[in-house]
């Protein structure tokens, strides 16, 4: 049979912050996780109102919630609990989920047992998931538009030309028509190959990042007349496959943004390694912009974050744009990764 000491040990060892709050909203007990989470000492928290853990702007509303709960107390499990902002001693706010369970202790007084969970990481992952879904949907829309506007129309035109060819009786005209059809088929094949390289470039696995980017830049020049001046150090073996693909996508998105929006005909891309990170810089001298969370740039940030990297953006209307991506090399510990990236 468990003793009071056993129950106390369970309370102290809980992975969540645990608070025991009386009906008046005063904190009567807490575990070490609560001390670590909120930053106040046990002595500072015991006997203080629970509202001190709530941001000032929300305290009045929190008191109303607490009063309503006291009038009709019931268990509220984690996952169905009250999600709100909490505040640390240093004044920083963070999202938490609260589960509540009313109880009468040995003293006979009514109390509420509160489990508090910091859900910062969970909310970040949820936002990351939403951003990646949005990015994937945008890529599908772009692919759909390209298939419709270019290849579907080309196929319809080819179908018409083949029909006309079958009806053409002049030998020379038939020869010219066949040559034109062959040229259009050849151009369609080249376009499909460009699309395949854009979706998952085979050069990335076969010949590395520099080669894959070189192919991408040649396609951009051929299709859009836009020149990318590239200085690409070979970083093969310094990044794992996931980080390599993330960096490729970041550079691809940044260059495509320059092609579509910068109102210039050239940009520069450099890739180099230094201090335990691989650094990619994409620059143009175009029109610049007011950065307001454009989805393409958000996608770049999320891709970098997934591999422990980061993005910085330097732009203003009329001042051009510089995007710098930093991705940690293989084998760095997480703490060192953060330090190396922050240094850049």
Q: What would you note in describing this structure?
A:
This protein is of the alpha+beta class. It is 51% helix and 22% strand. The chain is built from eleven helices and ten strands. It has helices at residues 4-13, 32-38, 42-45, 59-71, 120-167, 171-199, 202-206, 209-224, 241-261, 295-306, 334-343; strands spanning 17-22, 27-30, 82-87, 93-104, 110-118, 227-232, 266-274, 277-284, 310-315, 321-328. The strands form two sheets. It has a five-stranded antiparallel β-sheet with strand order 2-1-5-4-3. Strands 6-7-8-10-9 form a five-stranded mixed β-sheet. A hairpin with a 5-residue loop joins strand 4 (93-104) and strand 5. Helix 5 packs antiparallel against helix 6 and helix 9 (241-261) runs antiparallel to helix 10. The longest helix is centred in the middle third of the chain and has 48 residues, at 120-167. The two termini are 58 Å apart. Residues 332-344 have low confidence and may be disordered.
């Amino acid at each position: 049979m468990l003793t009071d000491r056993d129950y106390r040990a369970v309370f102290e060892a809980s992975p969540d912050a645990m608070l025991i709050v009386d009906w008046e909203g005063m904190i009567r007990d807490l575990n070490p996780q609560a001390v670590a989470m909120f930053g106040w000492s046990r002595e500072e928290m015991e006997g203080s109102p629970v509202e001190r853990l709530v941001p000032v702007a929300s305290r009045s509303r929190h008191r109303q919630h607490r009063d309503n709960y006291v009038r009709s107390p019931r268990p509220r499990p984690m996952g169905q609990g009250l999600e709100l902002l909490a505040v640390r001693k240093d004044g920083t706010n963070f999202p938490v989920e609260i589960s509540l369970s009313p109880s009468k202790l040995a003293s006979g007084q009514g109390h509420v047992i509160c489990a508090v969970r910091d859900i910062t990481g969970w909310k970040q992952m949820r936002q990351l998931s939403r951003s990646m879904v949005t990015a994937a949907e945008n890529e599908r829309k772009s692919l759909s538009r390209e298939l419709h506007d270019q290849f579907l129309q080309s196929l319809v035109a080819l179908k018409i030309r083949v029909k006309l060819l079958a009806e053409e009786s002049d030998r020379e005209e038939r020869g010219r028509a066949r040559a034109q059809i062959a040229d259009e088929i050849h151009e369609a094949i080249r376009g499909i190959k460009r699309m395949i390289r854009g979706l998952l470039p085979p050069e990335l696995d076969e010949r590395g990042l520099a080669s894959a980017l070189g192919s991408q830049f040649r396609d951009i020049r051929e299709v859009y007349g836009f020149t990318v001046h590239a200085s690409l150090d070979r970083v093969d073996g310094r990044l794992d496959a996931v980080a390599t693909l993330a960096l490729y996508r970041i550079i691809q998105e940044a260059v495509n943004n320059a092609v579509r929006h910068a109102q210039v005909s050239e940009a520069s891309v450099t890739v180099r390694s230094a201090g335990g990170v691989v650094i990619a810089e994409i620059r143009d001298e175009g029109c610049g912009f007011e950065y307001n969370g454009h989805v393409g740039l958000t996608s770049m940030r999320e891709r970098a974050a997934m591999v422990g990297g980061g993005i910085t953006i330097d732009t203003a209307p009329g001042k051009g744009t510089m995007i710098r991506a930093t991705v940690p090399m293989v084998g760095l510990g997480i703490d060192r990764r953060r330090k190396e990236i922050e240094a850049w």
